[in-house]
Amino acid sequence: MIDPFGRKISYLRVSVTDRCDFRCVYCMAEDMTFLPKAEILTLEELDRLCSAFVRLGVRKLRLTGGEPLVRKNIMSLVRALSRHLATGALDELTLTTNGSQLARHAAELAACGVRRVNVSIDTRDPAKFAEITRWGRLDQVEAGLAAARAAGLAIKINAVALKGVNEHEIDDLVAWCGDEGFDLTLIEVMPMGDIGAENRLDQYLPLSLVRARLAERWTLEEIDYRTGGPARYVRVKETGGRIGFITPLTHNFCESCNRVRLTCTGTLYMCLGQDDAADLRAPLRRSESDELLDAAIAEAISRKPKGHDFIIDRRHTAPAVARHMSVTGG
Ligand code: SAM
Predict the structure, then answer these.
(1) pTM
(2) Less crowded by CB within 10 Å, the N or C end of the chain?
(3) Pocket test for ligand 1, best of 160, 189, 203 (most atoms within 8 A of CB)
């Protein structure tokens, strides 16, 4: 699959549910309305869709959400998709999780061929963690991390940089990740979805600033390391650990974008920061053969836009797109 700008599409991110057991203040409003069950693809349909993408050239699949591990029976999808690892059609099957259910699932994930997971933790202060996630408990996530480590999964911590909230703890996160052998990715907050009373401008902390501050304490060495994502990495000389910077606001990397995003209703978004989307559920359900589906995927890829244009400043505090991050899973 090659898009109109010559970019090869080899990475599919799949939001398997829009539901989550946390309500992170930058991600969701507290009183979210979730999709009715009838709208949502079954796990068998998700498997068929993902498998079509693998057949068409996707080499990396990431399950996300909402919270992927709160979807009932999600491990049956992971087990089913792992067949593509076994045949060599897929290089990587992974997931992004808040870690709350990882203690239950880490061993089976590893057994299915998952090699690494991204776990989102913005702070290591239990009270602040509860404040940011509204409903989350840090000790539960830490138990998940311990289980993931015991299962042999490599762990990358995702942290959204939030002005006045965790901005003075990022040093601690760097030290902790260094000690634990975790990679760390820092993310700029993106203007997606109405999040209630919270104001994006109050949350937004440019990573250019964070990086400059980190450089006062740590020696940050430029490295070529890539995971197929938009993060640009440095090595922290003192800890040996890596820090990735995802900077959709201060510097986007759309020119090397290799991904598309599928929602749990079978809607394909060709760009995280644009509204254009393609419905794959109708062609999926219309026929048992994949011809209509393949044609709809090809048509969607031919419409992949050049990039997004997120802006957060005094004149732009409204969402750039109406949907929340939980719809497409970041
Ligand atoms: N529940 C899983 C988790 O917590 O990682 C997966 C879904 S969550 C939407 C994926 C990632 O998106 C998390 O790291 C989360 O912090 C991040 N995220 C959510 N809303 C965001 C926003 N508006 N801007 C930047 N990152 C956001």
Answers:
(1) 0.96
(2) N
(3) 160
